[in-house]
């Protein structure tokens, strides 16, 4: 296993160069390698992981001049030599079973406890984060009108988004599948779309559930104030126009009736 292999940042505690536990083994290792006047690099990587099921695992590895050298196996209490030059050290360290048991106890007990304490302290930063914003927008297209629900900046990735019509969940067949993509800052964004009939937009509500939320969030589409004002003005103008047309129709009708009555009179010449 390469020393540069990636490890989960959120569940991993890297303890580098722990002199109180590494030095007793590192110094004899340098002697075994014949380090005298030349400069060399000795790397020590040890740590542990706490998995989702609360199980733990640990690792303890040495590298020499950028290459894997020795690795400790807690199950067998033995060291594994990654190159021929590490074989002599492996044989010697395998004989020290008391030291090997101390190494195992640290990886299986002490290290996980330290990791859990650090995770508890950093829960506000590393813990679950619910969506910071849920919004619904409307879109017009040649194919019809659609609503789009967006949930932003949440972690972890698992999220549930659904549409409600008149506060009742819609059938899954009527809704397009939700899409979730990373933001690039270890958070995610998701969206859900729905085709609706014009004029029914306000009957639909988007509901979002996430482990980082105490209760579901809901959002619905609301016309912008400017749009509402425009619609109000248009409606008012339309009503006024209808009213004026009605008045004009009545005036014309009265004039026509007056003209018919005048036609019944007979005019005579004055003598």
From TrEMBL:
The chain crosses the membrane at residues 228-252. Coiled coil: none annotated. Its main location: membrane. GO terms for biological process: iron ion transport; regulation of iron ion transport; response to iron ion starvation. It is found in: Cell membrane. Residues 1-26 form the signal peptide. It comes from the Eukaryota. It is a single-pass type I membrane protein. InterPro entries: Ig-like_dom, Ig-like_dom_sf, Ig-like_fold, Ig/MHC_CS, Ig_C1-set, MHC_class-I_related, MHC_I-like_Ag-recog, MHC_I-like_Ag-recog_sf. Pfam families: C1-set, MHC_I. GO terms for cellular component: external side of plasma membrane; extracellular space. Binds to transferrin receptor (TFR) and reduces its affinity for iron-loaded transferrin. Binds TFR through the extracellular domain in a pH-dependent manner. PANTHER family: HEREDITARY HEMOCHROMATOSIS PROTEIN, MHC CLASS I-RELATED. This is Hereditary hemochromatosis protein isoform X2.
């Amino acid at each position: 296993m390469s020393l540069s292999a990636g490890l989960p940042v959120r569940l991993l505690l890297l303890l580098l160069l722990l002199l109180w536990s590494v030095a007793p083994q590192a110094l004899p290792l340098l002697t075994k390698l014949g380090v005298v006047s030349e400069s060399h690099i000795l790397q020590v990587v040890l740590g542990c992981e706490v998995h989702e099921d609360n199980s733990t695992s640990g690792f303890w590895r040495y590298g020499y001049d950028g290459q894997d050298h020795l690795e400790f196996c807690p199950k067998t209490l033995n060291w594994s030599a990654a190159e021929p030059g590490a074989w002599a050290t492996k044989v010697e360290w395998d004989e020290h079973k008391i030291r090997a048991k101390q190494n195992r106890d640290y990886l299986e007990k002490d290290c996980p406890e330290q990791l859990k304490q650090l995770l508890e302290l950093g829960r506000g930063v590393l813990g679950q984060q619910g969506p910071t914003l849920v919004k619904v927008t409307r879109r017009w297209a040649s194919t019809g009108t659609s609503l789009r629900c967006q949930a932003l900046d949440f972690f972890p990735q698992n999220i549930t988004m659904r549409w409600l019509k008149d506060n009742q969940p819609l059938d899954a067949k009527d809704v397009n599948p939700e899409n979730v993509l990373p933001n690039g800052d270890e958070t995610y964004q998701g969206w859900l779309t729905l085709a609706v009939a014009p004029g029914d937009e306000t009957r639909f509500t988007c509901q979002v559930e996430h482990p980082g939320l105490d209760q579901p969030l809901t959002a619905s589409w609301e016309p912008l104030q400017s749009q509402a004002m425009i619609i109000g003005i248009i409606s008012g103008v339309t009503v006024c126009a209808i009213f004026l047309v009605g008045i004009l129709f009545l005036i014309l009708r009265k004039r026509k009736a007056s003209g018919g009555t005048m036609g019944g009179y007979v005019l005579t010449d004055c003598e």
